Amino acid sequence: MKFLIQKINGEIEHDFSFTLLNAIKFNSWLHKEHNVIKYFNTIPEQMEFQFKDMHRTYVPVGSVEFVSGFLVHFYGIKPKPINVPEELFEFANRNILNINHTVIDSLKHGKYFIKSNDKIKGLAEVFKIDDNHVWNFKDGNYQISDVICIDSEWRVFVYQGKMVGLQNYCGEFTKFPCIDAIKNMIESYKSAPIAYTLDVGVNDEGTFVIECHQFMSVGLYGFPDHSILPNMFYRGFKEYVIKNKLK
Predict the structure, then answer these.
(1) Residues 154 and 230 grouped into a single domain
(2) Residue 242 is part of which domain span?
(3) Is 76 within 8 Å of 247 (Cβ atoms)?
(4) In this predicted model, what pLDDT tens digit does every residue of 171-208 receive, in sequence order?
(5) Are strands 2-8 and 59-61 parallel, antiparallel or unpaired?
(6) Which of 104, 121, 146 is the last residue of a domain?
(7) Which of 2, 145, 179, 247 could be disulfide-bonded to 36 (CB atoms 3.0-4.6 Å)?
(8) Which parts of the chain sit beneath pLDDT 70?
(9) Total domains present in the chain
């Protein structure tokens, strides 16, 4: 496996890059695996990257901008967020709609959480619709859901259809999610990538899905399984390219 790891001003700054490097060292020691690591230095706020043809055979590991730039440069892919897949709407404990900006005026008055369906790390904010509302967001596609209370947030790591890790990343860590509910979500997500994260929330109503992420540029929050982490990054990226490449 070959990884192109982003540095910023000569330093590694992402938790997943540190952990991946340790995982590669672990597998090299335990299984005598040989992985190729190359570093790509960038500067803060850099949006365009000078990739070379030789980089094409690597799997990029770095910021959303870095990985997205790699996908656009070599494959013509503009990655989009998963958000909440429709297969998991039943586990949301709230109403969710995928809409185009043209139908915003048809929504009932209320407070909604709105997130871009077109751009990773795009629009994500609470929006109130009433008689005085003004739609001033860009044209595009959005996922809109009711605003609900979240007491505790957890990141589930899924590989080959199985839960392989669970880390608290926000809120009260003593409010533990229901494992059976998580397993039902994973089972119901039939179109899931080979590697992804499933963020779930906990409140007095139970355990519910928050959103999902492709296994690229995702915070690990202490996810410890060194034995499979390199494969999750590598196979997840390769599968994504195969499914989405345009050239």
Answers:
(1) no
(2) 1-79+220-247
(3) yes
(4) 999 999 999 999 999 999 999 999 999 999 999 999 99
(5) parallel
(6) 146
(7) 2
(8) 102-106, 131-138, 246-247
(9) 3
pLDDT on residue 237: 97
- Rounded distance between C-alpha atoms, residue 180 and residue 223, angstroms: 20
Shared domain check, 87 and 173: yes
Same-domain status, 31 and 60: yes
Whether residues 73 and 90 fall in one domain: no
pLDDT for 247 equals: 43
Query: Tell me, what amino acid is at 140?
Result: G
First to last CA, the chain: 22
156 and 190 inside one domain:
yes
Per the structure block, which two tokens stand in for 222? 């202490």
Tokens found for residue 96: 């969710």
Q: What is the pTM of this model?
A: 0.92
pLDDT recorded at residue 181: 98
